[in-house]
Amino acid sequence: MRVSVIGCGHLGIPHAAAMAHLGHQVIGVDTDPSKISALNSGQAPIYEAGLSDLLAKHTASGDLKFTLSLQEAAESADVHFLAVGTPIDSDGRSYDTGQVFGAVRELAPHLTRPCTIMGKSTVTVGTTKRLTELVQRLAPAGDAVDVVWNPEFLREGHAIDDTLRPDRIIAGVTSDRAERTVREVYGPIIDSGVPLFVMTPETAELTKGAANTFLGLKISYINAVADMCTAAGADVAQLVEALGIDPRIGHGGMRPGIGYGGGCLPKDVRAFTASAAQLGVDHAETLLLAAEAVNDRRPQDAVQLVAAALDRNLSGAKIAMLGAAFKAGTNDVRESPALAVAGLLHQRGARVTVHDPVAIPTASRRHPELEYSNHIADAVIDADVLVIGTEWPQYQEINPEALAHLAASPTAVDFRNILDRDRWTAAGWTVHSVGRPTTARVERHA
Ligand code: NAD
C-alpha cells in the first residue's frame, strides 16, 4: 500500500521504517528541514536499535522517502498515519493537540480521493470525532475519508521490534470500510497472530491513556512500597520477586527507582487524570493524583539520598552521574529522572559529571550547566559518589575494583538497583540502593 507517516519523531521514524519493511511504499513528513534531509540520506536523528539499518536499506531502495510537503503526501498515499507530538498544554494538565489539528487542517484540503487517516498519537477522548468533523468540512473527498484511531504502544528502546511484533493492534473505527483498511495495512502482522481489537474511537483513545496510566500507577505503587521498605529496614528487591510471581500482579514495571519519565508516561498520566476530572469521575482523579504525587517527589527524595550517602557537604562535592537517558536503549532525555536529579544536585552546589552511552548530545542541549564525559572512568575520577541514574546494561559490566581506585570515596548510590552489591562491596564500595538496606564496604586489613 502507499502510506504516509506524518510527524517523524520517536514514534514516526520507527513506524515509517517498519511500514517500509512490511512492503509498503512510505513517505514520511515533518516540518523540520534538517530532520528531513538527514532521513533522506538514511541517517536516523534518534537512537533505536535496528533503526539505522532499516532506514539505510529502504531509503536506498526508494521504498521510503521523506518530505516537508503534506500536499505531496496527500497525492502519493492512501493511508495517512498521524504521528505528530501531543505535548502537555500550558495548563500543565491536558494535551496540546495543536500539532494534530494543525497537520490535519493542512492535509485535508489535498485529500481529493478516498483514503484513511490513522491517528497514532496519544490524544484525549473525543479527538477522533472532532477530527472527523474537520476532515469532512475541509477535504474535497468528504465522507470518503475515514478517520481511525490506532494508538501506538511501542516502548522506546524497542521501537522497531514493538512496531513489527506488537502485543496487540487497536483499531478505533466507525465503519467496516475503515476496519478493512486497518486489516490490510497491518496484514502481515495480523497474519502472524498478533490480536486485533476493533472498537469505537472513544474506547481506543481511552485504552491508550488507561494503559500508560496503569504503568505509572504500578511504578508509583512499587516506589511507595520501596520507601516503606527503607523505613522498615526491609528489602524491596526480595519483596518484588515474591510479589510479582502472582500472575494477577506480574513482575513487569515493578522496578523501584527514581520514578517514571520520558516523553509519554508523565504527560499521559497527567492528561488521563485531567480527563477523569472532565468526565466527572472524581474518585478516578483522586486515585491518579496520588500516583502523580509519588512520582513528582522522587527526584527531591533522590537528592536527599545522595546527600545522606556523602561523608561531606553536597556543596562542592564531585558526583559521577551514570546515565542521562530516561531509560536504557534510547537517547531520549525528555523528563529524564536521571537528568532531573543531576540538575537538582548541581543547583545544590555539587559538581556533576554525566556519562551516557548515547544521550550526551541530547542531554547537553537541555542541561548545558552540567559536565559530560564519554568515558565512565573519566566521570568517576575523584568523585565523592557514583550515582546510577539509568539502567544501561553496560553499567552492570563495570569493574568495581578498577573504579574504586579512581574515586575519591568508593560510595555508590544505585537508583536503578542494577549493581551486583556483593561484588561492589567486596571491591571496597558502600552501595546505597532504593528500598534496600545499604551494604557497607568490606574493610581491608594489610
Ligand atoms: P516527537 O516530538 O518525537 O515527534 C513529533 C514530530 O512531529 C516532530 O518531529 C515534529 O516536528 C513533527 N510535527 C509537528 N507538527 C507537524 C506537522 N504539521 N506536520 C508534520 N510533522 C509535524 O514525539 P513522539 O515521541 O514521536 O510522539 C508522537 C506521539 O506519539 C505523541 O502523541 C506520543 O504521546 C505518542 N506516542 C509516543 C511513543 C514514544 O515512544 N515516543 C509511544 C507511543 C505513543
How would the global form be characterised? Answer: globular
The N- and C-terminal alpha carbons lie at a distance of: 73 Å
Q: Using only CA atoms, what is the Rg? A: 24 Å
Order of the strands making up the biggest sheet: 3-2-1-4-5-6
Q: Which parts are unreliable, with pLDDT below 50 for 5 consecutive residues or more? A: none
| Strand count | 14
Number of domains: 2
Overall pLDDT confidence: 96
Helix residue percentage:
40-55%
Structural class: alpha/beta
DSSP strand content: 5-15%
**CATH class assignment of the largest domain:** Alpha Beta
Biggest beta sheet summary: 6 strands, parallel
Q: How is the CATH topology of the largest domain named?
A: Rossmann fold
CATH superfamily descriptor of the largest domain: NAD(P)-binding Rossmann-like Domain
Number of alpha- plus pi-helical segments: 20
